[in-house]
């Protein structure tokens, strides 16, 4: 040790001492993590915003962050009832104020009664406030036409991401050829690839079918699974419905086929259903995996393991900043469920304001409540505008030569395919960039529009896409779509 | 595959199909995680509460959860100013209400201006709202007598736990004999042991000196390090100051010695300083690792890597439910810092209400503000009562035969040592329980007092302790301490 310390002192005198923690010595799994939704393109968008503030001249006056599903950042107003009840919970002195409706006060009192010390400032139990878990279970029952839900199978979380990571953590085991493999859709929401990389699990890609509006095809699941077996141990299947980034809404038949496949192949099912309120297309309807599973009866209903995730960040409320969410587990081994609770307890509890918000989302005002009319009107206005924006997006993109866009049946993104001229692809390769990253960076620099390249979500080799939210206000969205289409035409010309 | 499916179908007909995810097949690292603060004893406390509600007769009328530092659950009232500003942020319609002081309104407007869409409901950037990071940096500068802090080195988090886990994640690498080792104090706060187990890192124990009021002794660090080398690669040293569960406050000399040790042995320093506002004992003073490091000058100041953690959950405000916190990194490699930001971005952002709360904690009302007098009075009242409770705890326990308690210089727990008669130890072993777990369970069943056995934090072989918060209201705490002491006497008699 003396020698080594001496060497180090020498190095210090020469100013050569290296850090303990370097890119080289750090956790290699963390190094491999990628998360495109907030990746380099968003860093550049932040820089551009700063330059604009400093008065640097640009060909645009504002950066439009269409990279992330963040409704309120795009100007959507919070739902009045939700914020009234939350303000009352935060500052109960307001409970005597005449400026709040009675039902909002009752709801706040009910939530506070269920909090430690009657305060949002106390920790909750790690699985979340019992009353709220019960309300979530009732919500699920109503949603699923009366199929029972047990509050003991509901765990509140810090947004849906937190719960998804927790369930994936439970599933990861093995080394080398026996490492856990997890099937994820391509394109996917990059939380999945990032988490699997961090946990050292094997990502098994199954491709959604762009020609059929991004539908999930069970024969493709079979292909992916067969190919994966032998170099890992596939144990779980992730499904995102409605789709992110695809906007596809799965049919009931498809869901049944997926469940049969998971059952036969012994795969734990993770159903990311955070966009369950966001279905727009005529003929499309949200079917929960839980409901379909239960209606399939034996042997599926009583045995297939399932975790379904939901969130307060999406839907009509778009309360991303509060980080509310939950997971319902179905047919999970009781001892494993105890282990999950133990794991959650290390982080103490999900944010209590987010839990309170979730309670309001799962049990909104009833028709007889004073706040019902306004709540309903605000909710419908948001959903109707989202439906119009979904339609508009599809229309404008499909009118542009070289861009094709599947219908946005649900969720809040389009994932259009763009033709990129071979010379642009070559130029990107010279720059060491994915071709669609090159396109998106140029788009950002010249128009201020920030979208995420398809390569961040995964796509078939040789195809190029980007993900763009449909969240900007309708007229702004129209301008945006047109500007983007014109930029694509100009870009195509430039490299032809 | 056909055969295997056939076998499974047979098993299904026989009702023998096992779950995909079982205790046996799950992540073995997660299985090894332990977290005593919310462990089996707390599960039992919850059951007892339920039994009391159902009218089951018990030798007590309420369960007192002295297991966790949860001030508001113990009846501490939130600080008025914090909740006023938060309510205004949650429901900006209140900004026109005459019932809020002007400075609260100004603070709310300032925070909302810095939020996406001027709403707490938008995501923030993953490192936290820039304005709040700047306020945190200014707080650190004031705290450290003007030593500069760079907002770019401040990352907001979901409570301190989240940030601690993130930094530990970066540090974990290697396999077998080269696996990362992390030095942690014994007794420790079990977030550390739980996280290291989950990450597959090696926990290297160094013992605090109970005979010297739980002081940290650098020769013990040397012993622990030497012993660890050869079977792992020690790369980090965790320090908790003020101590949890010990209540010890480190001297400046001790901190200097720790920094020199970390520098010489090339260890990344993690300083858990969440109790920095909670110092009670005459002669004790909080010195931040950052300040001491900077004042030590070269070669330490410019090179020693350090991460310091703080939280909104403790201090005088006790806002645990909001999950606010931050980490300041010092001398961290720039590329690693980028990797940390990337890792945080996968979880999108810390809860925005918690960020807002943190902002108020780090920049409370100034003496010229209308809210100053009330804020200051409320703050002082909480801290003065905590100081009285710390003193009382030490007194009552030290008067009890067979219990000895070091001074509670800071933080919010006592960690008294209890003598357990040999026959009680034998009885515990027969039951397969740690002796102090046996004691704590009996205490809970007979008195309703819930404390955490020392074995959950670590202790020298053959010694027994428990951790108890000092948070119950003063008179209640007195009764509690006396009841606990009497129970110990009775327990000792029973097993003598």
TrEMBL record, chains A, B:
Single GO molecular function: pyridoxal phosphate binding
InterPro entries per UniProt: ALAT1/2-like, Aminotransferase_I/II_large, PyrdxlP-dep_Trfase, PyrdxlP-dep_Trfase_major, PyrdxlP-dep_Trfase_small
Location of this chain's protein in the cell: Cytoplasm
EC numbers for this chain: 2.6.1.2
Keyword Cytoplasm: yes
Record field: catalytic activity: L-alanine + 2-oxoglutarate = pyruvate + L-glutamate
Official protein name in the record: Alanine aminotransferase 1
Natural source organism: Macaca mulatta (Rhesus macaque)
Keywords assigned: Acetylation, Aminotransferase, Cytoplasm, Phosphoprotein, Pyridoxal phosphate, Transferase
Function of the molecule: Catalyzes the reversible transamination between alanine and 2-oxoglutarate to form pyruvate and glutamate. Participates in cellular nitrogen metabolism and also in liver gluconeogenesis starting with precursors transported from skeletal muscles.
Subunit structure comment from the entry: Homodimer.
Cofactor: pyridoxal 5'-phosphate
Taxonomic classification: Eukaryota, Metazoa, Chordata, Craniata, Vertebrata
Aminotransferase class I/classII large domain location: 86-483
GO cellular component terms attached to this protein's record: cytoplasm; extracellular space
Family to which the UniProt record says this protein belongs: Belongs to the class-I pyridoxal-phosphate-dependent aminotransferase family. Alanine aminotransferase subfamily.
Pfam hit, one: Aminotran_1_2
Main enzyme class: transferase
BP terms from Gene Ontology: L-alanine catabolic process
Pathways per UniProt: Amino-acid degradation; L-alanine degradation via transaminase pathway; pyruvate from L-alanine: step 1/1
The keyword Acetylation appears for this protein: yes
């Amino acid at each position: 040790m003396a020698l080594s310390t001496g060497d180090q002192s020498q190095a210090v005198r020469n100013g050569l001492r290296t850090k303990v923690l370097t890119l080289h010595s750090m956790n290699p799994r963390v190094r491999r993590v990628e998360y495109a939704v907030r990746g380099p393109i968003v860093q550049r968008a932040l820089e551009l915003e700063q330059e604009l503030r400093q008065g640097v001249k640009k060909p645009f006056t504002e950066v439009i962050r269409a990279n992330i599903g963040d409704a309120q950042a795009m100007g959507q107003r919070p739902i009045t009832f939700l914020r009234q009840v939350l303000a009352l919970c935060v500052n109960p002195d307001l409970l005597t104020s005449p400026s709040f409706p009675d039902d909002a006060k009752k709801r706040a009192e009910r939530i506070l009664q269920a909090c430690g010390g009657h305060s949002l400032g106390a920790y909750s139990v790690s699985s979340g406030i019992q009353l709220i878990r019960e309300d979530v279970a009732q919500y699920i029952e109503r949603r699923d036409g009366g199929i029972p839900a047990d509050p003991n199978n509901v765990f509140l979380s810090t947004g849906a991401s937190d719960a998804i990571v927790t369930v994936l953590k439970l599933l990861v085991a093995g080394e080398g050829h026996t490492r856990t493999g997890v099937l994820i859709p391509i394109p996917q929401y990059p939380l999945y690839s990032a988490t699997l990389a961090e946990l050292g699990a094997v990502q098994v890609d199954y491709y959604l079918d762009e020609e059929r509006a991004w539908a999930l095809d069970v024969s493709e699941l079979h292909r992916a699974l067969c190919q994966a077996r032998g170099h890992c141990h596939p144990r779980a299947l992730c499904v995102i419905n409605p789709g992110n980034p695809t906007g596809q809404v799965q049919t009931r038949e498809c869901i049944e086929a997926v469940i049969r496949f998971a059952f036969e192949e012994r795969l734990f099912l993770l159903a990311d259903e955070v966009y369950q309120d966001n279905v727009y297309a005529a003929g499309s309807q949200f079917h929960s995996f839980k409901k379909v599973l239960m209606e399939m009866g034996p042997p599926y209903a009583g045995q297939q393991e399932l975790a379904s995730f939901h969130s307060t960040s999406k839907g009509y409320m778009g309360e991303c900043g509060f980080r509310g969410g939950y997971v319902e587990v179905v047919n999970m081994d009781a001892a494993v469920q105890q282990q999950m609770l133990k794991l959650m307890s290390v982080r103490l509890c999900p944010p209590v304001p987010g839990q309170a918000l979730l309670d309001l989302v799962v049990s909104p005002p009833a028709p007889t409540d004073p706040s019902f009319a306004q709540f309903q009107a605000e909710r419908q206005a948001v959903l109707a505008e989202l439906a119009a924006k979904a339609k508009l997006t599809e229309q404008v993109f499909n009118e542009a030569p070289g861009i094709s866009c599947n219908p946005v049946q649900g969720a809040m993104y389009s994932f259009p395919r763009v033709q990129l001229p071979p010379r642009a692809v070559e130029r990107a390769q010279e720059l060491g960039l994915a071709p669609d990253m090159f396109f998106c960076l140029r788009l950002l620099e010249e128009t201020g529009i920030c979208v995420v390249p398809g390569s961040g979500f995964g796509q078939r080799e040789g195809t190029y896409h980007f993900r763009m939210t449909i969240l900007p206000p309708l007229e702004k969205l129209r301008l945006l779509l047109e500007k983007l289409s014109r930029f694509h035409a100009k870009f195509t010309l430039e490299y032809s």
